[in-house]
Structures are given as C-alpha cells and as structure tokens.
Amino acid sequence: MHSRIDFILPLFCLFAAFQGSYSAARRKSTPPDPPSSVVFQVTGNVYPRGYYHVTVNIGNPPKPYWLDIDTGSDLTWLQCDVPCTKCLPAPHKPYKPNKDLVACMDPLCASVHWPETHECKSPKDQCDYEVQYADHGSSLGLLVKDWFPIQYMNGTVAKPRLAFGCGYNQEVHSSMDPPYTDGVLGLGLGKSSILSQLSELGVTRNIVGHCLGAQGDGFLFFGYDPVPSSGVIWTPMSTTEIEKHYSLGTAELYVGGKTTGTKGLRIVFDSGSTYTYFSAEAYKALVSMLTNDIKGKQIYNANDDKSLPLCWKGSKPFKSIQDVRNVFKPIMLSFEKSKNVRFQMDPEAYLIISEHGNVCLGILNGSEVGLENINLIGDISFHDKIIIYDNEKQQIGWAPANCKKLPNIYDDGDPDNGGLCKPYGSNLDILQAYCAA
C-alpha cells in the first residue's frame, strides 16, 4: 500500500524545495488575464493506492507521465534517462531530455536551492538538485526545460516552456509498493512551482484547486472559473507561521462539538500527504476522545490489522464508512484568528475501511515522522470538498462538493477551435482532457 508525505521542511531536505516568498511571487508587471481556466482529471484514492495523480504530457511531440499532485512542495520532477542511476518501476518509460538545461546561474536554480546558499563555479554549469520528503523518499537530478502544452476549458491551447526536475536517482520508503508514479507535480508557493511559472508567463492565474472524491478520483484546476460562486469558507494564508507552505495559522481541535483542550495547532494543507498528521498532544487527545466515544458500541480494537496504527473491528466486517457513521463523530478545526471559520472532517474524512473489513484511523502521529508541531491536513481530510489555494488574494477556501462531477466546459465543440470533445489521441493538453457528460 502506498502512503505518501510529500511535505518538505529544512529538516528533511538537503536543498529545501520551497523558494521565494509571498512578495517575490507578485509580478512587477501584470500580464493580461489568461483566456480561461484549466481543469484536469485526477485519478487515485487514499486507500489502497495512497495517492492521487494527473496525466501530464510533456515534450514535442508530447508524451504522457503520471505525476502526484502535491501542494506541499514546489519542484515538479519526473524520472529521467540521462541515463538513470536508479529509476523505480513506473507507468511510463523515463523521460529523455533535450539539450535545454537550466543553467546554474538561472534564478529558478537559486529558488530550488533556497534557503541554502547556491554557488556556481561557472555560468555554464547545469543546475543540480536534491530533494528529500518527510516519508524519506527523494529525487536527485538536474533542472531542464521543455514544452507543457495546456488546453483551456474553452478549448484553446497554450504551449508554455517550463522548468522541471529531471530525476536520475530516486528512493522511496520501504513500505511503499510499486508501481509508483513517474514523478511529482509541485504546486507550492515558490517560484519554481509549475503554478508559479504558468502565472509568471500569464498562462494561468496563480490559483490552484483540487476536489478529491471519497470513493476515488476527482479533478484539479488552475484559474478561478471552477471556484464556486457561493458557499466557500475563506481564511487568510498565514504569512508568519510557516511562510513557504499553504499554512492557515493556528486552530483549536474539537471532537463531536467538544474541545479536546488542544489549541494553537499550526495547520498546513498538503495534497501530497495521503493521511492527516497531528502533533503528539493533539493526536493523543483525539484518540482518547474517540476511544471514549465508542465504548459500549460493539466495536473493538483490531490490533492484528497493520493497515494503519489504530484499527477497530465489529461483529462482522465493515463494508463502508456508512456502517460506522453513527459510531464516530465529526472532528473540527476552529481557526483562532478567523472568527467562525471551521474545517470539519466527517468520518469519511478521517477513517478508512481496510482490506480486512476493519475501520482504521487515517489521522496519524506527526511527531513519529518528524513533523514536530506541524499539523498536516492530507488527502483523506479533503474528501468531497473543493479546496482552493488563491495565491493572488493570499487566501485558502473550501466548500462541500461532488468531486465526481467535473466543472462545466464552455466549449462549442468546434474542432477548429481545439474543442475538448474530440478524440483524446491528438490532444495537446498538459493533463488528460475530458468531455462533459
């Protein structure tokens, strides 16, 4: 079973993958608004696969690659044959780069190495990188540039040339099973993220969002068009707590409407993390309250189930979360600096049904993986919500959503206009296009 934590802190990386600052992300001159937003179909689930990915077409002619969607890191990379020192089993053959290497002196190279000092012996040196994740996965390689064809919702096409990592040496945690994805789609705040590069070029607005279905799959988008016109709860991004991540400031933890007594929890949203991670104090309080709540309800510890650290069994195997919905109460984060802003996690957003028919807690102790006092909200807690990271207004929003229902495509279907409703084989989109049902 896969379980990813694509979250990077200086503690975990030789060269941290978070670059720049909020102010650096603002352009000196604002390009014209892009013609439309871009919507991408997402494939995956929390359990048993452990990740959500998109299909990215790169190069000329474009070839497809599967990349983990990761708002917890900046650097996009894919396995690369330069040649491979160590490439892992993956859906596609390693990418073969052209000769367009990012130079060591390029500002993008400096941003990849931030906050470490970055020295170049010669202006012609290539830009090397090494990135390590909290789950002990890593990628070593060099920065290159290539075409990333993008198809907008209105059917028009853009063909930006973007920088990304060409990884020739990869490691994954021993608990993860192949096949793996071809790499990672970095959607963080730094200058080197795909989102920042597209925004800088005026190709898309600096807004990204995702909608992950509890039963699997969903969609990812760049731009503002898919954002609901009403019902979104917004809270400012924290620019003081953990600046280079999608941080929401501090919150208090509630279970079933009752406080756990844990306050000041520093919250970060990270789509690269399969599960949610609480700091030791919050995790202990959560488990204590959940355990007390289920006493006398014919549900017992399933210590023999190693799917996750804490699992329970019933008198017969559970088939879905609906079987235990009346046993487990909603969990809520109440943000301390944003009045009446709450992020609720119903049982579907923190429990899984294991292959053994037991119910397991999908919130883990972050202290055991070195996250210290960071509380990481991962994919499981995003289920059936649209999550919007608006870097232009420096705010994060969410709303309940049917993630199986893709946003409407306002395309006239005219093949001369690059309509999405034509055969997929010749499409030039960055992520696999779809046609509205």
UniProtKB/TrEMBL annotation:
Write out the catalytic residues in the record. Answer: D70, D270
- In Pfam terms, one family for this protein is TAXi_C
Tell me the Gene3D superfamilies matching this sequence: Acid Proteases
> SUPFAM superfamilies under this entry?
Acid proteases
- The signal sequence is 1-23
Matching entries from InterPro entries are given as: Aspartic_peptidase_A1, PEPTIDASE_A1, Peptidase_aspartic_dom_sf, TAXi_C, TAXi_N
Q: What are the GO MF terms of this UniProt record?
A: aspartic-type endopeptidase activity
Q: Note the superkingdom of the native organism.
A: Eukaryota
Q: Give start and end of each Peptidase A1 domain.
A: 52-399
- What are the recorded Gene Ontology BP terms? proteolysis
The entry's keywords: Aspartyl protease, Hydrolase, Protease, Repeat, Signal
Q: Which residues form a coiled coil?
A: none
Query: What does the sequence similarity comment in the record state about its family?
Result: Belongs to the peptidase A1 family.
Name of protein? Aspartic proteinase Asp1
Q: What is the lineage of its organism?
A: Eukaryota, Viridiplantae, Streptophyta, Embryophyta, Tracheophyta
